[in-house]
Specification:
By secondary structure, the protein is α+β, with helices and mostly antiparallel strands. It is built from 6 helices and 3 strands, in the order ββααααβαα. The radius of gyration is 17 Å and the shape is elongated.
Length: 120
Amino acid sequence: MTFWTAHLADSRDPVLLREGFVWGAFLLGPLWFLSRGAWIPAGLSFAALLLASVLPSPASGFVSLGLMALLGLSAQDLRAWSLTRRGYHLAHIVTARTESDALARLLTNRPDLIERMARS
């Protein structure tokens, strides 16, 4: 089973984040954050990777790899932080195999969200 965190904001659809390592953030770094609207983590990760690239040759590779691993490990936390800045709050933790199953479980526990999603 996978853990999903459900983030809610007034009059907006819920956002579900899968907890765990994110390969997309590890491989693509700032582009992964940009594609999910997390502008500040995208900019900071880009700046950190840029600074790592100017280090001497062997250190540059190790530092870049470490930063990429850190991005993969903390990607969903940084996304949750970005959502909080946009007015979302952590509302539920759901266990499910897929995102659609997690959404179904969330809507079972919170039928008021069905009306909100139908309006948007």
